[in-house]
Amino acid sequence: MRTPIVAGNWKMNKTVEEARELVSEMLPLVKDIQDVKTVLCPPAPALLPIAAMLEGTDVGLGAQNMHWESSGAYTGELAPAMVSEFGQYVILGHSERRAYFGETDETVNKKILAAQANGLIPIVCVGETLEENEADQTSAVVSKQIKAGLANVSADLVIAYEPIWAIGTGLAATGEMANDTIKIIRAVLAELFDEATAQKIRILYGGSVKGSNAAEFFGQPDIDGALVGGAALKAEGFAAIVVAAQDEVSK
To answer: Which of 21, 133, 151, 184 is the residue whose CA sits 20 to 30 A from 195?
Structure first.
């Protein structure tokens, strides 16, 4: 059985002091949950202080992005070793990175390879736009992103399916819709690796997930948790999603 992951992507929110306050409120609500892996992905300045707060807990820490080079003249970037010194995870290929910063499947692939070489677990994001969805191109788009992004990588990773039209819009795919696309993703993973390996890789759903709708997604057979955006910025809201995942495991 795949252990669910609920990862909070804070995006460009929270100063270090605000991050400390949020984690102080959040930890008592999630730290004792054993059957779900909880991961926090704050902005880069908060990685070190939050790492200290998470010591002795099972809550994981991740960065929101990193460069594929180990060092060099890349102003403003994080090297893989700078992330792995404090964290265990890194979000790669998020649609906002692709849309606003020109990331491609090829650069995402470079980052995945660098992350894995540094002992990090990549959370690799894929997803289609509203126009692509309405044109019935979802399968083709996510399949291309998976095949190109995961070329020559190992299976030690997590996939996050995030339909772009559902990120920060208040819209969300239904559980059945999300599961149908995630089944396609798992089939592509079976092509890249093998069926047994594909069944072990955790695939998350992301896109306006909150406590009130989380159970709908977690009740689907191929959805293994969530990559949470806005709801991750409130302790009780995020904890409600983690608890929903725990409740599904307990059934």
So the answer is: 133
Range of the domain at 151: 5-250
Three-state DSSP string of the chain: CCCCEEEEECCCCCCHHHHHHHHHHHHHHHCCCCCCEEEEECCHHHHHHHHHHHCCCCCEEEECCCCCCCCCCCCCCCCHHHHHCCCCEEEECCHHHHHHHCCCHHHHHHHHHHHHHCCCEEEEEECCCHHHHHCCCHHHHHHHHHHHHCCCCCCCCEEEECCHHHCCCCCCCCHHHHHHHHHHHHHHHHHHCCHHHHHHCEEEECCCCCCCCHHHHHCCCCCCEEEECHHHHCHHHHHHHHHHHHHHHHC
Choice among 94, 128, 216, 248 that is catalytic: 94
Q: How many domains does the chain have?
A: 1
Interatomic CA distance for residues 44 and 65, integer angstroms = 9
The question of whether 162 is a catalytic residue gets the answer yes
The CATH number of the domain holding residue 175 is 3.20.20.70
Per-residue pLDDT of the chain (251 residues; tens, 9 = 90+): 899 999 999 999 999 999 999 999 999 999 889 899 999 999 999 999 999 999 999 999 999 999 999 999 999 999 999 999 999 999 999 999 999 999 999 999 999 999 999 999 999 999 999 889 889 999 999 999 999 999 999 999 999 999 998 877 777 789 999 999 999 999 999 999 999 999 999 999 998 899 999 999 999 999 999 999 999 999 999 999 999 999 999 98
Please identify which of the residues 96, 103, 162, 216 carries the catalytic annotation: 162
